[in-house]
Amino acid sequence: MKKPLDAYIRFLSLAQTLNTFSGDNALDLMAFRLLDQIVIRESQNDLLTVTDAMALSSIASPATMHRKIDELINSGYIHLTFKGENRRTKYLTPTKKAHDYYKKLGTFLIKAIN
User: Fold this and answer.
1) How far apart are CA 82 and CA 107, in angstroms?
2) Adjacency order of strands within the sheet including 86-94
3) What is the pTM assigned to this prediction?
């Protein structure tokens, strides 16, 4: 088994090959931190609302979070959904593109520790 530091550095190196931080729909690390939270909440069957996202002050200010939500939508990583008849509460849900991104990261993680 590899040493934890070596495995993590290998993982980071592999993850950089995804090249998600450049191109036409470039996203920064802050946007991906928000995407992490959206995916984590979805995995817990507790979708993140726009209001919840705005309150994530550990990531950024509400105004910045609003811009990051727009960037994630425009880049195709998330979309807004509603539950039932309630049209006031908007939920942030990951798209297939987001799931594919995290599947690839998972593959890289497995590769890095083997």
Assistant:
1) 32
2) 48-49, 86-94, 78-83
3) 0.88
**CATH fit for domain 4-113, picks 3.40.50.300, 1.10.10.10, 2.30.30.100, 3.30.930.10:** 1.10.10.10
Decide if 29 contacts 18 (C-beta within 8 A). no
Cβ neighbours of residue 11 closer than 8 Å, sequence gap 6 or more: 108, 109, 112, 113
Would you give per-residue pLDDT tens digits along the chain (114 residues)?
Answer: 579 999 999 999 998 887 655 555 678 889 999 999 999 999 999 999 999 999 999 999 999 999 999 999 999 999 999 988 888 999 999 999 999 999 999 999 999 998
